[in-house]
Design brief:
- The protein is an alpha+beta fold.
- The protein has one domain: MutS, DNA mismatch repair protein, domain I (3-Layer(aba) Sandwich), CATH 3.40.1170.
- The chain has two helices and seven strands.
- The two termini are about 15 Å apart.
- The model has no long low-confidence stretch (mean pLDDT about 85).
């Protein structure tokens, strides 16, 4: 889970920092002729992607932490994200 530091000031004016954990957003983005899917680690989601989408239609980019998926699977991926992660997403043009 990603972590950040939050700057806080107590009642005496002293500054201190608190570690804050946050959930990375799930993003399905069009990138060239492929879709790029980014989500926080979830073993069930990964297993479902591997079981449903053939190897030649998906691959993992470990450097970027992104799954690349052929657009033919877009609606299935959107449904899987809703069912497994409980999030409603759409295909976006926003950068990851």
């Amino acid at each position: 889970m990603p972590t950040a530091l939050r700057k806080l000031v107590n009642s005496r004016g002293q500054i201190y920092y608190q570690s804050v954990h946050y959930k990375a957003p799930t993003v399905l983005r069009r990138e060239g002729k492929m879709l790029a899917l980014s989500f926080e680690y979830n073993a069930k989601m990964i297993a479902a992607l591997k079981a449903r989408i053939p190897r030649d239609s998906r691959w993992w980019d470990g450097d970027r932490g992104v799954w690349f998926i052929k657009p033919a699977y877009a609606q299935w991926v959107i449904g899987l994200v809703r069912d497994v992660l409980g999030q409603d997403i759409t295909v976006t043009e926003e950068p990851l």
